[in-house]
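Much of our argument rests on the idea that a fold can be written as discrete symbols. The amino acid sequence and the backbone structure tokens for this protein are reproduced below:

___
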Amino acid sequence: MRLIPFFHDYTIMTCTQDYHQLLDDLDAEIARIAKMHGAAISCSPGCASCCLPFSVLPIEAACVLKAINAMPPDSRDTLGRNRTKDTDHCPLLIDDLCCIYAARPVICRTQGLPLAYVDEERETIEVSACPLNFPEEYTFTPEKLLFMNGFNTRLADLNLAWCREHGLTPDKRIPLKDILRSVSPKA
């Protein structure tokens, strides 16, 4: 397994401008969708129900690692202890708050919202929504859904280019917990 050298190389790299543009575009769409749903969305700081031990693409892992390494040493130490815990929650939580909130990956940014995926083969729209925000009887109209296909395609394309540039396998997802193995030690 090549995780340790891979992450070591990433500690000196910066994340791409195109990736940050994707996040900006996604955040704008998230704000639009959230405003449409108003009080239905109960997500707030301290709600960690959706914060699971996800895995991310290599380009996202590089940005997450950069954010972690920029944290104060005491916070990095806490994350190091989180890595050794056997839990069903994200290892990047400190007191039920995301310690890399500004740099969180795409999957984390979209939690809690009504996500839509177009299945062209079946000619359907699949909707995934947080049951804490949207009970089963909640009715969605297309303009109130966050359509992910375009964002996911952009992310896949950026990840492919990133991986080609760095000699990595683009379809290899990296668990967030594994990123913590490469965190710089306390100075």
Summary: The helical segments are 3-10, 17-37, 58-69, 73-84, 106-109, 149-166, 176-179. The chain has one domain: 3-182.
